[in-house]
Amino acid sequence: MLPTLELVYWPIRGRAYPVLLLLKAARVPFTYTEIPYDDEAHFAAKARGDIDPDEWPFSALPVLKVKGDEGEAVLAETGAILRYLERVVEEELAVDHVKQLNALDQARVDMLASAADFNSSALYHFAASPTWLEGDERADLERERILPFLRSLEHQLAQADPVRDAALRPRELKGGGVLFGAAACSIAYTLSMVCDLFPLSLAHPLAAASADVRGTLAERFPACAAVLRDVEGSPGFAEWVASGERKARWSNRRAFTPDKTRAAAERWDGRRGEGEKEERAR
């Protein structure tokens, strides 16, 4: 029997997004508790040590509150939450149980998840700059962070590897859901964020066609796009998106809002932005 689950987070996608990818695709019941965000109050409380370490381990969100046959716990850190959910959902709901990977194969799968998590965290740090999506900062972000990550991930995913491919594929569950493992959810999370940051040069594989798009993730990095398409296109997750419940914002950062990311993309990446790029190059 699945434990009772409560996911606690801010009113954004953020680091809870890969957890939501797993839970919604799997159609696992859980409670979502949204905490209002006050930047100054939160960091002041954190600095004073006023945040209850039992309620919020490591003074961070998301946390997953678990209550079941194995006991009660408050789990922090997205990677730990994902690995816990992958195991417990597999054990309780999988139609056909998969064989546990040996240590080396598991490390090779974890390597992909770790790379994705590192790069998503880096994007939040870049967003501390109010001009991170403009001009030279945007060019540096794309050239030095985004594209090297995508090229490396594409290289790994494009190699014929039955063991790793099986770990990234969905597993059929009782109740009509599918289980994507921690690695697949971490990868899809980071790729989804990248596509939202660069919607006209790395357009999402599930996005509607647009005349202003000059490049898509599927054209440039097809193996990456396949993982993102599989996870975000799963029926359970797609139904949740269609319901309108998915948050629009990725971050609490003031420079990382949907309107600002879209405006920057139209200015610098879209076909209408070519004139401005040429002007900058002179």
Automatic annotation (TrEMBL):
A Pfam entry, by short name: GST_N
One GO biological process term: glutathione metabolic process
Biased composition (Basic and acidic residues): 256-282
Residue span, GST N-terminal domain: 3-93
Region of interest called Disordered, as start-end residue ranges on this chain: 252-282
Molecular function per GO: glutathione transferase activity
PANTHER family: GLUTATHIONE S-TRANSFERASE
Protein name: GST N-terminal domain-containing protein
Source organism of this protein record: Rhodotorula graminis (strain WP1)
